[in-house]
Each structure stands twice: as C-alpha cells, then as structure tokens.
Write a structure and sequence with these properties.
By secondary structure, the protein is of the alpha+beta class. The chain has a single domain (12-160), classed as CBS-domain (Roll). It has six helices and five strands. The protein has helices spanning 17-21, 37-47, 66-74, 85-88, 102-112, 131-160; strands spanning 30-31, 51-56, 59-65, 116-121, 124-130. It has a three-stranded mixed β-sheet with strand order 1-2-3. Strands 4-5 form a two-stranded antiparallel ribbon. A hairpin with a 2-residue loop joins strand 4 and strand 5 (124-130). The protein is elongated and about 75 Å long. The mean pLDDT is 89.
Length: 161
C-alpha cells in the first residue's frame, strides 16, 4: 500500500502556478490606456472573458474588469466610445509570479477581493490566473485524490479476502 504521507507538490495548496498552469501557452488579452472603454469591452465580449490587463510599452499599467466598466463607466454615465481605459482602470494591481502557490493565490484573491491575478514573469505580464482556473484545478485535484483513495480501499479489501 502507498504511504499515506504526501509530498508537498502533491498537496494542492503547495503547488506553484508554474505547475498549475503547465507548459501550455495561455493567451494574454490586453488593452492600452488610451484605448476606448468600448474597444476594451468589445475584446472582452469577443473572447468571452471578464478581465484585461492594461499594457503600456509591454509593461503592466493597470487592469480592467467588467465590474470596473459597470461601476466606473455605466453607473457614472460616461460614454464608452470616448472614455479612455485609463479613466476607469485599476492602477494598483495585485500581481503574482509563477513561483506563487495555489494557496498564495487564493489568499491574495480573498484578502484583496479580486477574482483575477496577472502573472508576471521577471516583471513581464505573461498570463492571468482567475478564481475559475483555481477552482477547476481544485476539482481535478480532488477527483484524482478520490480515485487514489478508492483504489487504495479496493486494494486493502482485496488483500484481506
């Protein structure tokens, strides 16, 4: 029977973003600070996403979510076609790097009441991790653990028969 002790990398809370996100390339959707809020919303609608990083010369300048648009654009009755992204974006963005763990990301999201974290690798934005990404990873991880436990239980049962 396998050891009941698990290595840290087998415990979801200790897995790094590098491991969670894997080697597959992920899209990074962005807008510029001078782009109109309308063009940013169009990107979000076309890509079926709710968050964009705002890049200026390939550096993170801010972030824009659908919630930001609803609160700072629609509710303030600003025209989407002429309002620049810089007027409604969040400037103080909470970010992570690929060495952050699953648990670190959840704690940051909870502490800062955010659902998206831009991932910076050596200061350069490379992707965004969302609460949905983390939830999907948790579901897959728990399914794997349950399957292992069921297999161990079956092996234990078979060995006693």
């Amino acid at each position: 029977m396998n050891s009941p002790l698990r290595r840290p990398e087998e415990i979801l809370a200790y897995r790094t973003l590098r491991d969670v996100l894997g080697a597959k390339p992920r899209a990074l959707w962005s807008a510029g600070p001078a782009d109109s809020a309308f063009s940013a919303l169009r990107i979000m609608a076309e890509k079926n996403i709710g968050f964009l990083v705002v890049l200026e010369k390939d550096a993170l300048a801010g972030a824009l979510s659908e919630r930001d648009c609803a609160r700072r654009l629609v509710l303030e009755r600003k025209p989407a076609e002429t309002t620049p992204v810089s007027d409604i974006m969040v400037r103080d963005v909470v970010t992570v790097d690929p060495s952050y763990t699953f648990g670190d990301c959840l704690r940051l999201m909870h502490a800062h009441a955010v659902r998206h974290l831009p991932v910076l690798d050596r200061g350069k934005p490379v992707t965004v991790v969302s609460i949905r990404d983390l939830l999907g990873e948790a579901v897959a991880h728990h399914a794997k653990i349950i399957a292992q436990l069921e297999r161990e239980r079956l092996e234990s049962f078979i060995s006693t028969v």
